[in-house]
Design a protein that fits this description.
The structure holds two protein chains of two kinds. Chain A is an alpha/beta fold. Chain A has 17 helices and 17 strands. Chain A has three domains: 53 residues, Orthogonal Bundle (3-methyladenine DNA Glycosylase II, Chain A, domain 3); 248 residues, Alpha-Beta Barrel (TIM Barrel), CATH 3.20.20; 118 residues, Rossmann fold (3-Layer(aba) Sandwich). In chain A, helix 8 links the parallel strand 9 and strand 10. Chain A starts with a helix and ends with a helix. By secondary structure, chain B is α/β, with parallel strands linked by helices. In chain B, helix 2 runs parallel beside helix 3, helix 4 packs parallel to helix 5 and helix 10 packs parallel to helix 11. Chain B has one domain: TIM Barrel (Alpha-Beta Barrel). In chain B, the strands form two sheets. An eight-stranded parallel β-sheet of chain B has the order 8-7-6-5-4-3-10-9. A two-stranded antiparallel ribbon of chain B has the order 1-2. In chain B, helix 6 links the parallel strand 7 and strand 8. The chains are: A alpha/beta, B alpha/beta. At the A-B interface, helix 8, helix 9, helix 10, helix 11 and helix 12 of A face helix 7, helix 9, helix 10 and helix 11 of B.
Chain lengths: 445, 315
């Protein structure tokens, strides 16, 4: 729980000795609350005060890292229950499960399939983050599967096994890549704690009951194991949403340190191709730090990664592209000029269709502070004046020999005023970007 | 030991009844956030209506249109197929053919269709205009009258065109869809204007305007969350159930429509389109959607199962 300036003041010696560099203890407290000063500046803090201040400055939900290097996954450090309150900070890690009982060829094939899942949407590369290897047989098979996967992917690993000796042999191979160990329960607590300490890897704590989960996590923290991820096991969707919501609320609202960790959900395997995707989508929206799933078809991954991108977009800052004149393809001075806004989604949707048309064209994006066409028009950011100004600013006259602009169909109403304002002829394009290819084919300059 | 964190809400969502017969449905009436059954009563499951058109839609992608190709030209048979073959809980009829650019059907023609549909169907009916304000103002009152007493849900009323529809809906005992452009203030303003016309609050359903997965979904998601939180905190002018036109938005998305030939890295379009529509639906359910209007029977089946599984043992 965040402390107020006065709460902090009560913890200070109240001697106004000035050794911290501030005139009074109260002034120092006010700086502490703003995080403009460090508690260490006061040489006379009691142990109790130190730990209270330490707790207050700790983020309510710990940041946990899985994996290593460029592809490492960071989750946690969340601050709100609803994205409009600020934003969700660290996108849910999406991981795919591979059973260790498969043949080497099958494992390799699956790893390569997962490695290849990579989609570009509105200027961002969407990729999964983790590969989870699940133990079914004996320890040596598990270790061999882990070795094989590790050799063929840069993604972070999750080691799923309740068997501490199997985990040990896998960790001896893979610990350097900071994998996540997943399999701790009431029965193997001690052995798994030892593994996490020895190999310095993050650890999942799995217990169905929230109080027990909190108690066990508390014990682990006391032993110095602090890179934890929480799991409440296999439950139905509504119960799972309840658990995830409670863990997030108790971390944020109650500063309950032993639940102040990111969460993980494993989607049960199903014969249906859609059910697991809908379940995973639910937990991406509702606070899961990691979602593990077996379904790894491109269309399944694409829909989940797109949802993650949507939910984790900063609501205060819509994704934008630079506003400028973009030549698409092999443009010449006879190429048509299409106008849209600098909202990423608008630009990339138009871009995709212009590319698909195979007709070289210019796209001129107007700075609408990231608003879409209709919104920007309603907010008077996408106007004859702003478009005229952009024509001059980006030197459109020097780029093309004609004087024709294409505007989005939804703002057809501005075409007359735009012609008057800029002196260019205005053609009204289709309302939906999907109409652009056929529109361009028929466009007479 | 710390305890569970329960949030107490002073407000409650209105309950709207659609349909007049034994198969009428109730939506809304939540006393807490979506799926948090332990915190507040959620007496009604979210419902799904099949979208049916009065003319054969020209721009539905093949994967979708193929599902209805045997009935595409006959709205009566189309709706019948949805009910008999797919156990539709409700039908949403879009009077697209009334649009001056798409056939310009007369008010009388559309009213006759409504009468025939109501005679043939036991499930509740949602009626949508063609989107041309002038034509809708001509057609919808006649259709409203033709459906008098059947407690339909009719839309959409928008900020600068709500009076004509509100008068008709009030007179004929229906409920009204209040549509606002992803804007919480306009949504509230419109609810006030409509209720000033004398329509009881529980006969207003909010269409917050949504974007599909990947196409602005997050804007609608957060507007709905904000509106729902405001309603639960006691704002009566936000306490209406939400209707979301999931099918309409999804099937415009490239990821739902484009063939595998065009984007081999995306996988087969048959699964992709269904996934796109059902993931959009499930995300909006998390934000509080009460009534989904959808198109693909497989997507509807998946989402209905999802709702049933989630509500099992919880009511």
């Amino acid at each position: 729980m965040a402390l107020s300036g006065l709460d902090i003041y009560k913890l200070l010696p109240k001697t106004n000795c000035r050794e911290c560099g501030f005139v009074t203890c109260l002034a120092f407290a006010m700086q502490l609350v703003k995080r403009q000063a460090l508690p260490e500046k006061c040489p006379y803090l009691s142990e109790q005060a130190k730990s209270a201040l330490d707790a207050a400055s700790r983020p309510p939900i710990k940041l946990v890292v899985i994996g290593e290097g460029e592809d490492k996954l960071e989750i946690g450090n969340e601050t709100v229950m609803f994205r409009h309150e600020e934003k969700f900070h660290h996108p849910t890690g999406l991981g795919f499960i591979i059973e260790d009982g498969l043949s080497s060829e099958e494992i390799l094939k699956t790893v390569n399939k997962i490695n290849a899942l990579s989609f570009e949407r509105i200027g961002c590369l969407l990729r999964p983050n983790l590969i989870a290897i699940k133990q079914n047989g004996d320890a040596s098979v598990f270790a061999a599967a882990v070795k094989l996967v590790k050799e063929h992917t840069n993604l972070g690993l999750v080691l799923i096994s309740k068997d501490a000796s199997a985990q040990r042999s896998a960790l001896e191979i893979a610990a350097c890549g900071k994998p996540l160990i997943y399999g701790l329960d009431k029965n193997n607590l001690e052995a798994f704690t030892k593994l996490a300490v020895e190999f310095k890897v993050p650890l999942v704590v799995s217990l169905q009951d929230l109080s027990e989960l909190s108690a066990v996590a508390g014990k682990l923290i006391a032993q110095g194991v602090e890179d934890l991820i929480l799991d409440t096991g296999n439950k139905n969707i509504a119960e799972k949403i309840w658990d995830l919501t409670q863990i997030r609320r108790r971390g944020l609202y109650r500063s309950e340190r032993s639940l102040g960790f990111p969460t993980i959900v494993t989607i049960e395997d199903s014969a249906d191709r859609f059910d697991p995707i809908l379940e995973a989508a639910t937990y991406i929206a509702k606070y899961a730090g990691v979602v593990l799933i077996k379904a790894n078809e491109p269309w399944q991954a694409l829909s989940l990664l797109t949802l993650r991108q949507n939910i984790y977009t900063d609501p205060q800052r819509p994704l934008q592209v630079e506003s400028k004149l973009y030549p698409i393809g092999n443009t010449s001075d006879k190429s048509p000029v299409l106008i849209t806004t600098n909202f990423s989604l608008s630009y990339y949707t138009v871009l995709g269709e212009v590319e698909a048309s195979k007709i070289p064209a210019y796209i001129m994006t107007i700075d609408t502070e990231g608003m879409s066409v209709l919104t920007a028009w309603a907010a008077e950011k996408f106007t004859p004046e702003s478009i005229s100004a952009a024509i001059d600013k980006y030197g459109l006259k020097e780029q093309v020999c004609h004087k024709q602009l294409v505007i989005p169909g939804y703002v057809a109403v501005m075409s007359g005023k735009l012609e008057d304002a800029c002196g260019w002829q205005v053609a009204v394009g289709p309302k939906e970007a999907s109409g652009i290819p056929s529109f361009l084919k028929n466009l007479q300059l | 030991m710390a305890e569970l964190v329960y949030q107490k809400w002073s407000g409650k969502i209105n309950e709207t009844i659609i349909g007049a017969g034994p198969l009428s449905i109730k939506i809304g009436a939540e006393e807490g956030l979506p799926f948090l059954f332990k915190e507040g009563k959620i007496p009604n499951q979210p419902r799904i209506a099949f979208e049916v058109w009065d003319i054969a839609p020209a721009d539905w992608p093949d994967e979708l249109a193929g599902q209805y190709k045997d009935v595409f030209n006959n709205p009566l048979e189309w709706a019948g197929k949805c009910v008999q073959e797919y156990q539709a809980q409700a039908i949403c009829l879009r009077l697209q053919g009334a649009h001056p650019d798409f056939g310009n059907k007369s008010a009388e023609e559309e009213a006759r269709l409504i009468k025939d549909l109501l005679k043939a169907l036991d499930v509740p009916l949602i009626i949508l205009g063609c989107g041309d304000d002038n034509k809708d103002n001509e057609v919808l009152p006649v259709c409203s009258q033709a459906a008098s007493g059947k407690r339909c849900l009719i839309g959409s009323a928008v900020g600068d065109n709500y009076r004509t529809l509100a008068v008709a809906v009030l007179a004929d005992g229906h409920s009204i869809i209040a549509e606002s452009p992803i804007d919480i203030n306009i949504a509230k303003q419109l609810n006030i204007l409509i209720s000033d016309m004398g329509i009881p609050l529980e006969r207003i359903v909010i269409n917050p305007t949504i974007g599909a997965l990947g196409y602005g979904l997050e804007y609608a998601y957060s507007i709905m969350e904000r509106a729902r939180l405001a309603a639960l905190a006691g704002d009566k002018m936000m306490a209406m159930p939400f209707i979301c036109f999931v099918g309409q938005e999804t099937w415009r998305a490239k990821e739902a429509k484009a063939g595998e030939k065009e984007f081999p890295q995306w996988g087969p379009e048959a699964e992709r389109g269904v996934a796109w529509e059902s993931v959009t639906a499930v995300a909006l359910l998390q934000a509080g959607a009460d009534l989904l209007v959808m198109r693909h029977p497989k997507a509807i089946d998946c989402v209905r199962k999802y709702i049933e599984v989630s509500f099992k043992d919880n009511i």
